[in-house]
């Protein structure tokens, strides 16, 4: 399953992480805590809040402009 179906609407939701398995609880907006494994390019999107997780030094991180 591809995780890029819920892409965020700008770089404001980009979060650099140092682990390929992450958790998101929505922060201030809040939602149930969910866990994601980053894809082969080193990224994942939260299906609740659209937060964009990018693995540090991954292909996705290097392609950020």
Name of the CATH first level: Mainly Beta
| Gross morphology | globular
CATH superfamily: q5lls5 like domains
Low-confidence stretches: none
What is the tally of beta strands? 5
Assign the CATH architecture: Sandwich
In whole angstroms, how far apart are the ends? Answer: 26 Å
Mean pLDDT: 86
| Tally of individual domains | 1
Radius of gyration: 11 Å
Q: Give, in order, the helices and strands.
A: EEEEEH
Biggest β-sheet: count, sense, barrel? 3 strands, mixed
Helix content: under 10%
Number of helices, counting only DSSP H or I runs of 4 residues or more: 1
Q: Per DSSP, what share of the residues sits in E-state strands of 2 or more residues? A: 25-35%
Strand order of the largest sheet: 1-5-4
């Amino acid at each position: 399953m591809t995780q890029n179906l819920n892409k965020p609407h700008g770089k404001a939701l980009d979060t650099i992480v140092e682990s390929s398995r992450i958790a998101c609880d929505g922060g201030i907006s809040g939602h149930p805590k969910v866990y994601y494994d980053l894809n082969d390019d080193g990224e994942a999107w939260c299906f609740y809040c659209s937060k964009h997780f990018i693995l540090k030094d991954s292909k996705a991180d290097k392609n950020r402009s």
